[in-house]
Input
Amino acid sequence: MTRKRKAFENILIEAVDEGLASLGESAKQSIYFHLEGKFKIAKKDIPYRLEDFTDGLEKIFGLGAHFIEILIMKSLFEKTGQPLKWNQSKELVFTEYVAAAKQSFLKRKKEVKAIEV
Output
């Protein structure tokens, strides 16, 4: 695993943490507890099990999960500062947004490295 990829995964975990924390610290801890207990998704595994994570949020919160995903996407955008190329006519799907943010982040890191050399 490259350092850039690991850096993005850490940023994603921080964004999830901040998105959930906006609901309150005890709510955040409760969500992590349920994700790990019911769905066997540890916090550190979220970047590798993103679909399972979103499924878990949907099972816990129903339609409210989309609001939490938006909070996480906002935090991820703030952390990466990555403008994404997004087809506006297409529905914004959390897993696709994260994949696009990751691709943009990794690409930008390569460009920055090339400029520094």
